Amino acid sequence: MNNYPQNGLGSSAPAVLIDSSSSSRYVLVGVGVVMGLVVLCALTFFVLSQALGRQEVLPTRAPGSTARVEPNGPLIAGAAFSVRGLGFQPGEAVEILAAPAVGFSSSALQKLGQTFAGPDGSFQKDDLIAPGAGGQYYLTARGSSSGFARLTPVTVSEQSASPPTPSPTPEEALPDLVVEGVTIELESGSSCAYVSTQLGVRVVVRNIGPAPAGPFLIQVNNQQQPVPNGLLPGEVAVKWFAGYASGPNLVIADPTGLVKDRQRDNNQFNAPLPIPTLPATCTPPPPANTPAPTSTPNPNPSRGWYVQYFGNPDLVPPVLLDQNLAGPFLNVNWGTSAPGPGVPRNNWSAIFNAEVLFPSTDNYQFVLTVDGGVRVFVDEQLIINQWFSSGLRTVTADVALTAGQRNVRIEYYKASPAARLALSWRVNYSGWEARYYNTPNLTGPVIVKRDDPPSPPNPPGFLNTAAFASWPPPGVNPFNFSVDWRRRVDFAVAGSYIFTMTVDDGARLLIDGQIVPGMDDFSVGPKTLVGARALSAGPHSFQVQYANYTGPASLNLVWALVTPPATPTLTPTPTSTATPSPTATPSPTPTSTPLPTDTATPSPSPTLVPPTETSTPTPDVTPTSTPTP
């Protein structure tokens, strides 16, 4: 009989006894192994990542790229600097970048600017700003095709607290001429008898600079006088110029720039001046039982000049001698001799009278050469006033005269050992030849024909009515009038010129007889006209036609070169081995066509309609043939 217990299945096989704690130990061991592996892997990953983090990640460069970037000069934190790049692909876009050298990686690069490589693969970039903190940096650039340039180590310096103040450069000691005073006065120290109507411009010029000024000129309107010894610092020069302008009087110290001046913008005065009223006591009464000093009409007008001589410098009768001189021009040189029997060699005066026929309505330039004092009148209008004691000189005056007989009178006195007097005239236009009409369409008689001045700069052909001494001139309607201006302008440079005309009311511009496109508008009111024209170098005929209907009248024409002349391409002339042909006679060089005169074919005239209360007319500007007086 077996003494073994039965198993749970009812079997009588022997049973194996197992310790229940053994399986728990196996599980714990397995869990421990797994956790150890996990910790080991984490530790390995941490070590590797730290090692990789300490390595520099270099930017990628294209294979074979030689691109590099270099700074031009030192870098200061937050300040502008420039770089140059070399070895890039021509025309590619390039970014300039920088990053700190410590812990450098491509992700730390900051963009400083962008540019484009030139045809040779180089560039220059001047407006970059350095990093705001000082230290060591890598500078590089990235081309769109070349990739990154090689790294360039640079040092960025901290900005100094206050930049050093540069030492002041000692200023050069220079004179400084200033127009200190301008007045209209009588000439001082002269006899009241013959200067009572002679007013002039007195000018005070002072040197306010620290250095002496050498010799220079003072100009008043169209007269000049020298200051031959210059001016010491603080010294003053006072000059008196005969005559004055009723409008602005132009005064310039050193107009020719002989003196190196410290400040030239105070060398000029240009403004109207108050005209003083002469005291009644300035003109002394005539001597007792003596007629007033008036000229006697020429008893023989056809015999030229009628002259009366007086035994004093003040034109005070009695007449000591009268005579006739040939005309129409006058040219007498007495030298140191007396004018004739009964007249003293010195201390005498004379009145010359002539009736002169001026054949056309024109601008006449009178040319006077004189040694002594003189006044010239045309129909009682004073045109030249040199009534002061001075040596031999020549002066001119431009006077607009209508055709007809005019009285010309000269008053003269001898002021130096020698005496001389010459007067002539001619039709002359140095600026714009202007014809004024009392109609708005350039028709009817020419009321005034005069020389209107051009305006600067060069070429001296700009036209500006604001610069005229009178506008419109006396005798012309204040509105509802027209003007025809003509002149030749010499252009030194060929090219395309743009013309701008600001006008109120209507105008057109013709060059060489052709209307400039865009410069033809005779509508009412202010406007700006702009046109362009290609012109060759040399003289060109300009014509401006203007119409005023009502209200303000103005015109301002300017031009400028907008296209420089093209450089001609020279084609070499082939060398011929053939027998030379006879020398050809050169063709004559064409001459420029002169400005039309009063008898030439007229220029186109606008057909204009005056404005009404209810409509604004747009005149027909088809050129018509209008006789030009």
Oligomer: single chain
Our count of domains comes out at 4
Helix content: under 10%
* Alpha-carbon Rg, integer: 48 Å
CATH architecture label of the largest domain: Sandwich
Return the CATH topology of the largest domain.
Jelly Rolls
Provide a count of the helices.
Answer: 2
Query: How many beta-strand elements?
Result: 38
The biggest sheet amounts to: 6 strands, mixed
Overall geometry: elongated
Q: What is the overall pLDDT average?
A: 78
How much of the residues is beta strand, in percent? 35-45%
Instruction: Please write the CATH class name of the largest domain.
Output: Mainly Beta
Write up what this structure looks like.
This protein has 629 residues and is mainly beta. 6% of the residues lie in helices and 42% in strands. It has 4 domains: 68-157, Immunoglobulin-like; 177-280, Immunoglobulin-like (Sandwich); 301-427, Galactose-binding domain-like (Jelly Rolls, Sandwich), CATH 2.60.120; 432-565 and 597-625, Sandwich (Jelly Rolls). Strands 2, 4, 5, 7, 8 and 9 form a 6-stranded mixed β-sheet that branches. The chain starts with 21 loop residues before the first helix and ends with a strand.
